[in-house]
Design a protein that fits this description.
Rossmann fold, 13 strands, 7-stranded parallel β-sheet, about 375 residues, alpha/beta, binds uridine-diphosphate-N-acetylglucosamine, 2 domains
């Protein structure tokens, strides 16, 4: 089985691709994989770390407003498609899958034009521009929220879930706790602003650092790599509490998720797939800066089931956040109810579902 995988920009598109690659290798040790991304996206670090063959093309996204930049983007799309065609012809894949982000545009489009079977994986309830464009050309569209099917040609759609939901079940919670030097008998809350961090959440965190230091639980705080130096500079104005660990990025997230009791996060779809698979309760602060406010919709699907508390970024208040964390971590009853509601939404077999879609297209090919 020879597969080209493409997905880029942020962790929410890249980690599902990496989990799928693990599932392909699990079923098919001889499988050959080529990942096509961009040099600038997070994928150039995350994919190379895994030792997966990695090639790049140069592409930028469309601006929603009319802009001169869009002319450049069209020209990059054309050169990107040409380069993708060369890479695909040389690799001769049985199937090509895109997991979102601009880079998938030229890669999946080029594969479809070369008559190679193609799949896109849409993590969100509301699809992004690239997947909407590609939906006309691909053979199959794998989705994770029922609502997403309304945006795509019906007969191509198949519900699989997000493969990262399966991957996070294969974890070593003890290793996760040790990597952060967590106290084994204390409860832990992880606060993370998505794969690239979030400045407003960092500010909220700095405003409550003093109070966090007095809590009986421990806190793992992830700033996002680009914001780390700024947060650490600001931390010089505060006493660093012994129960608070601050990190720029967590590379062993599945193990860490296994070691915590509660997560405060953005509502990126891949994060939600992970936490529901594990049955973690959550406090979600959806990013208001995403296409069609889709994180708000992602978050509401958990909140309406009782699995999460949702707080708007515009109304974010450190005191409220502390009260929410306290309420969940200090009441076994509240925690258990949210845990069961969260678990109920998880799709642990998602990786196998998506692998089956690729395997069937490969067989037909
Ligand atoms: C601003 C933006 O466009 N966000 C989108 C992006 O978010 P983003 O990339 O933040 O995506 P998600 O929250 O869905 O996923 C983040 C991924 O990174 C991992 N992680 C995060 C932090 C860390 O320190 N270590 C780590 O491993 C998480 O465990 C998860 O696997 O893709 C998601 C999936 O399409 C979308 O729903 C989001 O709306």
């Amino acid at each position: 089985m020879r597969v080209v995988v493409s997905g880029g920009g942020t962790g929410g598109h890249i980690y599902p691709a990496l989990s799928l690659i693990k599932e392909i290798k699990r079923n098919n040790k001889e499988a050959d994989i080529l990942y096509i991304g961009t040099e600038k996206g997070l994928e150039s670090d995350l994919v190379r770390r895994e030792g997966i063959a990695f090639e790049t093309i140069h592409i930028t996204g469309f601006k929603r407003k009319i802009s001169f930049e869009n002319i450049k983007t069209v020209s990059r799309f054309l050169t990107g498609t040409k380069r993708a065609k060369q890479l695909i012809k040389a690799f001769r894949p049985d199937v090509v899958i895109g997991t979102g982000g601009y880079v998938c545009g030229p890669v999946v489009y080029a594969a479809a034009k070369l008559k190679i079977p193609t799949v896109i994986h849409e993590q969100n309830s509301v699809p992004g521009l690239t997947n909407k464009f590609l939906s006309k050309y691909v053979n199959k569209i794998a989705i994770c929220f029922d609502e997403a099917k309304d945006y795509f040609p019906n007969k191509k759609v198949i519900f699989t879930g997000n493969p990262r939901a399966s991957d996070v079940l294969d974890i070593d919670a003890q290793a996760g706790a040790q990597s952060l030097q967590l106290h084994p008998s204390k409860k832990t809350v992880l606060i993370v602003g998505g794969s690239r961090g979030a400045r407003p959440i960092n500010e909220g965190f700095l405003s409550i650092i003093g109070e966090l230091g007095e809590k009986p639980y421990q806190v793992v705080y992830v700033t996002g790599s680009v914001h780390f130096d700024h947060v650490m500079e600001k931390m010089k104005e505060h006493k660093h509490p012994a129960n608070v660990v601050i990190k720029p990025f967590i590379h062993n997230m599945p193990d860490v998720l296994g070691a915590i009791d509660l997560i405060v996060a953005r509502a990126g779809a891949t994060t939600l797939a992970e936490i529901t698979s594990l049955g973690l309760p959550s406090i979600l602060i959806p990013s208001p800066y995403v296409t069609n406010n889709h994180q708000e919709k992602n978050a509401q699907s958990l909140a309406s089931n009782g699995a999460a508390i949702v707080r708007k970024e515009s109304e974010m208040d450190g005191k409220q956040l502390l009260a929410d964390i306290d309420q969940i971590l200090t009441s076994e009853q509240v925690w258990k109810k949210m845990h069961l509601a969260s678990k109920d939404l998880g799709i642990p077999q998602a990786a196998a579902n998506l692998y089956d879609v690729l395997a069937e297209l490969t067989r037909k090919h």
